[in-house]
Amino acid sequence: MNPDRRIAIVDDDDAIRDALVWLFSTRNHRADSYASAEALLADYTPERYGCLLLDVRMPGMGGLELFDRIKEHPYCPPVVFLTGHGDVPMAVGALKQGATDFVEKPFNDNDIVDLVERCLANDASKRGIWQVKMQITKRLGTLTPREREVMKLILTGRLNKQIADDLSISMKTVEVHRARILEKMQVKTAMELAALLRGSGVES
Question: For the segment 95-133, what is each residue's pLDDT rounded down to a tens digit?
């Protein structure tokens, strides 16, 4: 778990924000609090936060709309909604849209801290997988269209001579393309390349 990853609390109730910031500090977590969705968006970067606590109902932009805006970023940390009793159906709908959980007010202190700690651990794991996927996608972006063609054939198990025949190019040209593909993708063999793409879930 990254100790630099903070918790964001967005609630228009000053008392709730202050109580949560203090509560998380007692478990050695740093939290930033915002009185409105707009205030968070003005200061938001996905890299800073490992968990977001969003009040469902707030003046101006509500928590659900804020969640939709946050999901527009390439990476969305775990989101937990704070709800009043009447907001539970809305929170359940948010779960279907990708939120992690919701907590009804008034909440149990230990329960909410335990939940957020699970979110922080999940964020650390999910963020690591996402970062690897982005790195591999970036490497794929350095391939030329012809290199992408050759790579697809390599991944089907075609030999250099077969690839040369398929693309009507020389064996030497295929060998050059193969070497460049492996270099750009930072692997040594076609088997490593296949394992890299399969393990990351990136489309080749």
Answer: 888 999 999 999 999 999 999 999 999 998 888 888 888
**Same domain? 99 vs 166:** no
Residues 165 and 69 grouped into a single domain: no
- Please tell me whether the peptide bond between 145 and the residue prior to it is cis, using omega within 30 degrees of 0: no
Q: How many residues does the chain have?
A: 204
Summarised one tens digit per residue, pLDDT across range 37-57 is 999 999 898 889 999 999 999
Please give the residue range of the domain that contains residue 195: 141-200
This prediction's pTM:
0.72
Distance CA 72, CA 98 (A): 13
Torsion over CA: 189, 194, 74, 3 (sign)? negative
The SS3 of residue 201 is coil
- Proportion of the chain in helix, strand, coil states, percent, rounded to 5: 55, 10, 30
